């Protein structure tokens, strides 16, 4: 699985970049989106990398986020 490390190392809490700015806010270096949690930011970065590491075992569906795979699996449950 490709690493996001090159992108992760370019992000710094805005409070450290801009003294007097919001502390603990993480900004995407690609699109500028701001998030309060690093975990949200890490998840967001998959939008820019195109990495789809979660795969359905029942069909060709792939996605970047586990919660999207969980939602997708309901399609198979409904099909019975």
Characterise this structure.
With 80 residues, the chain is mainly α. It folds into two domains: 1-49, no CATH class; 51-80, Double Stranded RNA Binding Domain (2-Layer Sandwich). Helix content is 41%, strand content 10%. It has helices at 5-8, 14-17, 38-44, 46-49, 66-79, and strands at residues 26-27, 34-35, 54-55, 62-63. The strands form two sheets. The protein has a two-stranded antiparallel ribbon with strand order 1-2. A hairpin with a 6-residue loop joins β1 (26-27) and β2 (34-35). The longest helix has 14 residues, at 66-79. The chain is elongated, with a radius of gyration of 16 Å. InterPro entries: Zinc_finger/UBP_domain, Znf_C2H2_sf, Znf_C2H2_type. One of its GO terms (cellular component) is nucleus.
Helix residue percentage:
40-55%
Proportion of residues in β-strands: 5-15%
Query: What gross morphology would you assign?
Result: elongated
Q: What ranges have pLDDT less than 50 throughout 5 or more consecutive residues?
A: 14-20
Summing up helix and strand content along with how strands pair, one would put the structural category as mainly alpha
Strand order in space, largest sheet: 1-2
Query: Total number of helical segments?
Result: 5
**Total domain units:** 2
Task: Report the mean per-residue pLDDT as an integer.
Answer: 78
Secondary-structure element string = HHEEHHEEH
The largest sheet is: 2 strands, antiparallel
Q: Return Rg in Å.
A: 16 Å
Pfam families: zf-C2H2
Keywords: Metal-binding, Repeat, Zinc, Zinc-finger
Domain C2H2-type: 26-53
GO molecular function: zinc ion binding
